[in-house]
Amino acid sequence: MIKAKPFVKWAGGKRQVLDKLKKYIPEEFNTYYEPFVGGGALLFELSPNNAVINDSNQELMNVFNVLCNDKKYTKMCKYLNKFEREHSEEFYYKVRDIDRNKRKYNRLNECKKAARTIYLNKACFNGLYRVNSKGEFNVPFGKKSKVNTYDGENLLNVHSYLTNNNITILSVDFEEAVMNAKEGDFVYFDPPYDSDTNTFNSYTETGFNKDEQRRLAKVFKYLDSKKVKVMLSNHNTILINELYKDYNIYIIEAKRNINSNGKKRGNVEEVIITNY
Ligand SMILES: C[S@@+](CC[C@H](N)C(=O)[O-])C[C@H]1O[C@@H](n2cnc3c(N)ncnc32)[C@H](O)[C@@H]1O
Predict the structure, then answer these.
(1) How far is ligand 1, taken at its centre, from the CA of residue 114, in Å?
(2) Atom 14 in ligand 1: which residue has the minimum CA distance?
(3) pTM exceeds cut of 0.85
(4) Is there a contact between 171 and 58 (Cβ–Cβ < 8 Å)?
(5) Which of 264, 179, 187 is nearest to 233 (CA)?
(6) Among protein residues, the one whose CA lies closest to atom 5 of ligand 1
(7) What would the pLDDT profile of 38-49 be if each residue is shown by its tens digit?
(8) Is 222 within 8 Å of 179 (Cβ atoms)?
(9) Which among 243, 250, 270, 274 has the fewest CB atoms less than 10 Å away?
(10) Which numbered atom of ligand 1 lies nearest the CA of 39?
(11) Exposed/middle/buried for residue 236 (C-beta within 10 Å: 0-12, 13-18, 19+)
(12) Which CATH number does the domain 15-56+172-274 belong to among 3.40.50.150, 3.40.50.880, 2.60.40.2470, 2.60.40.790?
């Protein structure tokens, strides 16, 4: 079967560095855990039979859940077709701003919510996901006159992969998501990036600051003590080098492609850290 690919554009998505990441994957493992799954580039590339996937972004994980169910998946595609037909700047803001009215928003069924998430991702500026302090999606219109919300063949591959394998879908904090990982399992952490300067890392209302990076390093260490195989990617920063100095640190070149300031796009150094 043809491998599925991410169905959303996601900040920090790993499609460009997949070949580099794959070199560091353990040869054998039992259950695959991806607690910051985002668009799921590595998940789909590896397509493991047993996996636990998680992201604190509930909108995104709702899409994964909908894709796991035949009827819901079909219903979501119908909404997407309708959204494509109705697409315009005015329509974009109408769909985007549904979350300004919590009662109206909560009344949406999960398939329509999932279609809204995909549509906004494709129609917004640069595929960003950003919410304000009230949790309202606030990315402006992407100025596309036509929008393709999905590739039918790929979405079917995603649906088949998720339904024909043993995939647990969670939307909790990363620490809770890996609580049951055991010896021989493989955890891949791809957290929001650390930075030595002040760049984009506000994926959620709360963001992911240096204390969160420190908390993650403790979880890494704990899993290491349980003989879980752990891999982590991040920017090559002072803090990351300090936190993981007891493990293998490999430097790779990556292209930064989500930055509102076009001039700042370019190559950045990333690290891959493993405990094996
Ligand atoms: C760098 S992105 C992951 C990109 C992903 N590997 C891909 O290929 O698309 C980091 C993800 O972490 C999620 N996140 C942020 N804080 C989190 C937390 N405390 N627990 C779980 N997920 C979190 C964000 O919603 C975001 O999707």
Answers:
(1) 18
(2) 56
(3) yes
(4) yes
(5) 187
(6) 38
(7) 999 999 999 999
(8) no
(9) 250
(10) 9
(11) middle
(12) 3.40.50.150
